[in-house]
Amino acid sequence: MSIREPGSVPSLARLSLIVGSILIGVVLLSHVRYSSNAISLAPKSSTAAVAQVNHPAKLQSQATSSPRFATAIAPDQALADSGALSNSTTDLRMAEKLMVPAPPQTDLTLQGVDPRRLRASFQRGMAAMRSNDSDATTKEGAELVSLAAALGYEPARVTIVQEYPRSPIIRSAVSSAEAVRYSLDPLFVPGPQSAGNRIFLALLASYFSGRHELPAYATDLLATLSDDQRLQTEESLKSLLGLLARVPGACTGLAHAIVKSRTVTGPECSSGLQLQLENFIRLTAPLGLEARSRRQALQLLESSNPS
After folding, report:
1. How many angstroms separate the CA atoms of 210 and 224, rounded?
2. pTM to 2 decimals?
3. Which residues 6+ apart lie within 8 Å of 35 measured at CB?
């Protein structure tokens, strides 16, 4: 017994060493596997970050697909839309300044035409008249100018008054009554440019005088005066007679048209004629020539270009 007992101690020690080594090995193996997994994840993350830095287009693509980015560019789009609207409004206001207002009693439905459409009609008409392509083209151009003038576009009216005496094409598209009516616009349209256009009233009257057509001119003149209250003021009538005084026989022809007699006493363009003119206008009902002309022109405009 004494010999076996000492031998059993080393056996137990060796067994303990073996078990301990196994446990330590298991712990070390687990630690190595955990470390290996943690290290293998790091390169993937850094690789993705580097790829994003090296490819900014991809970043931009991702950013533009983000709702937050779409919200961020909305103000820029709003500014662009606002700028376009502002330009359109400015253009409209500029075109409106070139419009001759209709007589006060004119139906509102005959006054609501976009002046930019009339400007376009006038510009196309002038281009066609200058092209000299054919008689049909130039006549069509004159009709476009006449349409814009009838609806109140001042440049078209001034062009007609200036060109009527020397342009057969204009005379083929515009009646004498319309030309006479447009020549009276500067009597009530304010501004220095309008005042400068008054001379064309006298030149138009001189044209009819040279053709011995003053009676017809006087008839058209009286019809226009009775049709528009703005021309019936004392100041307007005085300015009119002052311009007609430059044309020999013009006031006499007007007086004949008023009193219907072949003999007219007193100075040709006297204050007495102005009183007769005022009485005639007061007793004469308006014929509605401006409204009729506008209605016809509006129908032509809508039929040729519904937009």
Report:
1. 22
2. 0.70
3. none
